[in-house]
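ASSEMBLY PREDICTION REQUEST
Request ID: AP-0331
Submitted by: J.K., bench scientist
Number of chains: two
Total residues: 393
Priority: normal
Notes: Please return the full assembly, not individual chains.
Input sequences:
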Amino acid sequence: MNDKPKIIIGLAIFVAVFTFPIWYNRGAAAPAPEVKLSEKAKAAKQCVRDTDYMRKEHMQLLDGWRDRTVRDAMRVYEVNGKEYVASLSNTCMDCHSNKADFCDKCHNYVSVDPYCWNCHTYPKEEKK
Amino acid sequence: MENNRRNFLKFAGVTVLGLGSLSLLDGLTSDDVIASAGQTSAEEIYKKGANALTAKRWGMVVDTRIITAAICRKMENACHQTHNVPDHANKRHEIKWIWDTEYKHAFPEKTDLFLAERFEHLPIPVFCNHCANPPCVQACPTQATFQRADGLVLMDFHRCIGCRFCMAACPYGSRSFNFRDPREAIKNENPEFPTRMKGVVEKCNFCAERLAVGKEPACVEASDGALIFGDLEDPQSEIRKLLKENYAIRRKQNLGTNPSVYYIV
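STATUS: Completed
Returned structure:
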């Protein structure tokens, strides 16, 4: 055990480098994004499902819409007695016409890059 | 403590038990699970639209006695505008859903040395035949192309991996591959229909999205009566009546794909 100091120094350097991202960003965490609702979405008050469900599960909902629409020709989604056309571009984006302030804000924050927009269109926004 | 098998097994058993009960406790006490379980229960039903057109097997009749080059252009524009089909300048990147070709190319096995003069340069509109026995569906490794219960052979672009097996399998050349991003070459985007992305195969979909809202295909609407759309399995349908009264042929019927598009000649 003659190399004790060397090992300890090495370990200290390793720990410092390994935890660098943690202490470097300490206290600098980006605040959780606040999505902006479009006027139409504000007026509607309630989305297809309740807000909490939409926040957590909208991707599963859209997956269901996608598969039933494309593969089974079931293009109408009925929930709690209300009917919606299961379409991202024509139903979701009709209300949430502000993609940059609504979709992108959270997606960028959590660093996800959904490829919906490679094909599906969204309303043109005036200011970028 | 003595290190022997007996002690090791005891220790391992207690550890597994402890870890297992931990997750059990966690699951029981978590408010999150309990709370969200109450909220997510909603009655969800998927169904067809009230106006949706339905059939046992959709089919098309093309009346070549009416067809002119002008009608072909009209149908092509209507289709390609509706479905955001790009118009690439380079012919090698071309995307086609409906186009026209000469009789000898549309029906290579039915042409002859002394063919009726009318057919020499008559434009024959061609598109996906929505075969009853579609080779493209068999070739697709991801089931991105599939046959719906009403006979339509459709593409699920979400699943297409761009392997182009379907293009090799299709004997009619009905499929095109997006070698480039199609959005560059779409002039008037139809916001109601998605575009495609680079790397997927696309083709005619018999306007599945229009049938779902009770409209006939775009080409049929633009065809001035040259294209007639209907249910092949319904003996009372307009197309079955037409087929009863007129001699009609199908493309490359000897291959056994059983196309759903008939041409009255």
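REVIEWER COMMENTS: Helices of chain A lie at 4-18, 20-24, 39-44, 51-72, 88-95, 99-109.
SIGN-OFF: pending second reviewer
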